[in-house]
Amino acid sequence: MSATAEHRDLLRFVTAGSVDDGKSTLIGRLLYESNSIYEDQLSSVRRASEAKHNDLDLSLLTDGLRAEREQGITIDVAYRYFTTPRRKFIIADAPGHEQYTRNMATGSSTADLALILVDARKGVLEQTRRHALIASLLGIRSLVVAVNKMDLIGFDEKTFHLLCEEFRSVAASFRDTEVHYLPLSALTGENVIRHNGSMPWYSGPSVLELLETIPIPKRPEEAFRFPVQSVVRPDQDFRGYAGRVSSGTVQTGQEVIALPSGQRTGITGIQLYTDKLEEGTKFQSLVLTTSTHIDLGRGDMLVSVDHLPVLSTRVTANLVWLSSIPLHNETRYLIKHTTKTVCGRVSRLHHKVNINTLEPVPADSLNLNDIGEVQLELHSPIFCDRYQQNRSTGSFIVIDPHTNDTVAAGMIVDAVALGSKEAAEEPFAEARAATGHGVTAWFTGLSGAGKTTLCRAVATELLAQGLQVEVIDGDIIRKHLCKDLGFSKQDRDENIRRIAFVSKLLTRNGVIVLVSAISPYRAARDEARSVIGDFIEVYVNTPIEVCELRDAKDLYKKARAGQVHGFTGIDDPYEPPLKAEVVCDTSRQSVREVSSQIVDRVLRYIATPNLHRDTNS
Amino acid sequence: MSMSHLDSLEAESIDIIREVVAESSRPAMLYSVGKDSSVMLRLAQKAFYPGKIPFPLLHIDTGFKFRDMLTFRDRTCSDLGLKLIVHRNEDAIRDGANPFRLGTSKCCSLLKTKALLDAIAQNGIDAAIGGARREEEKSRAKERVFSVRDNFGQWDPKNQRPEFWNLYNVRVSAGQTLRVFPLSNWTELDVWEYIDRERIPVVPLYFAKERQMLVRGDFLIPLDHSIDLLPGEEPQLVMCRMRSLGCTYCTGAVRSSAATVPEIIEELRVIRRSERENRLIDHDQEASMELKKREGYF
What we know:
The complex is a heterodimer of chains A (617) and B (298). With 617 residues, chain A is an alpha/beta fold.
């Protein structure tokens, strides 16, 4: 007989319920009865049980931390695994204690199903309600209510039905949710794997039977979304986009849209290692290739043509607050959404949810374990959907840039489309004047060296520090302020003069200016340095071979073919800086490494401008 | 058709590996040469194909590794064109550290934990990708996929970052580093089923054959490195294989006749003993893995 892997699918579920409802015992029982516990693990539990009392305490199988075994409660989510011939299961065993509610939310975020335990003697408690709400809020559409400890009420049918009735009123408000009800005794094993005859009135499935056969809930028809994680560019002949299909499907030959550029392109290849696929589906980690060269990198997204996500800098979202430091509306937070991290702040706190009544109540702030609805203003747009529609493009985490902790998990309720009338009312740049000292960080280097990518990363970090930042991108300036200029030496010098002039005005007013421009001539840059005064030169010294390999805009190709003239590095010189404050090479260093070096430099500069100006000029 | 469990696990692991590389400064993969490392390596190849694996491998060599492991390690790295950093705690090795003299706990702390922390510091690594699985051990069941370690490399299990969806927070403060576990949700059986499906090469020590062993109580101790025999002890030929690979003194073999990957999978489906039972270091005291992890062991 072949021992190769059978085709089993994967069901992820979270267990919930109040303290002492018997979650750990039920999981221990499932593992024990499905032969997923090894003898040596069992014998150590047996020894520990005997030290306390006589019965085998199956809950000891799951409480992994010393403090948990000492206190006899579950503190943190533990992940457990078991496999039957039909399915592989991943259990997130979440704590029941109120102070660990955030851990219940953590476990729910990746689960397809929630198994909610209710003590037959105690009924539906506050914590049962809270957990059911969190599960629903986190998008779980399949609930199993397991009424446990039936042995302690004599396996009474009437009590079971009363409890089910009680829970139905809680679940009534949950959208598109299917609820299953089961009586059992985790302690005696009744109805965990099979019926043992104590409840002849019950003819439904056992816990395991239900878990093995319940369809993995299908989401409403989702549109194709592919957030780009990185660009795969091993040589001239290959350019692919690595990422995970977060929803929908994609076929070779299909037309898609690249965001934020809005360019249309065709999918020419779907690769998973050496396999070439015809179709890519939700959750697969793939490399996609496109028919045309498009400017696409980490944080960008490929999406279906007919259902576009909303481009937005203002979203309404439910936040689960995870930190003991309360939400503060002056703080700039980092928002990680798909593969993009942007700076943002909470501009309004609409309300907080009263967990017992599920009603919105007014609130001044969100504290640890609170759930509330807020409005977020983002510094640059994200491409999002409603969480109820799409769990991946509808979710984000909130990071405190000072502690680097994850302080909240967010689910998008609504998003204002960029460019709509509503979006224009209150721009992100609040009327707060810059108070500090300004400086211009001038990124120079070849086309494709990584200047713009670095600028964006540095801008996000500095914005998160609450600083006034302006990015001046050479390409954008040439479309507007310098539309009249070409690429002769005179015109290039004039271009740099104008950029330097604008930078000077902003710097003088305390803004941190990040200039991204090839600026090939040394004399022009040195002039910019003396005009602006507060100046940090960042030489992005990525070798030309690497820049040419990247060639996101096909410019090198055109220059080599003679279609573009006066191209820096090909038929026009690049004069490297002689005394740049920062020299980096994005082919050898990561964006993170270089950008944090530049951020440090900028922060040190604005803290002690005189010191730096003196030594550098 | 829905994805199989192996496809789902693979996709999740690739996603994790790509995220570390995209968002950390200097990632490295802890390569211990075992079956989990072999699977991780294949997943890393898949994550960046047709590009190359963009980080070095780091092997913590205690001086007590099996000869077969070192041969396999060097061949794998040269076949795949990978950069390998080998780090040893030379001071402790020179001082003659071994588990008989120091006890397993102290020996591990010097040759593995200290060596690992030193290697991470000396190479400026801010994210170390490791092959630990939550199923292996009860404190590992509580681990995050992206696990923050403080300035001393220590794990604080009561103060872990919540981890939502697949939105991993890769940011650390000065001095902190990350341990990243792409195989968090894999079981031992998944690993072998994947090795089988993908035809991944592994160290031959995993396959049963007759080997010279010292039989001491329930333990089968390999004789790669010299060991003092107790009165009456004689090496014996035993049909056995290694179920997990560590240092020769502290990794017992198991009696088995499983000589191929499918036979190992069959064996695992019926076996009633846990994978790390033969790892002496997990049992030197109550909650010993948790204590080691708190110190900085991955």
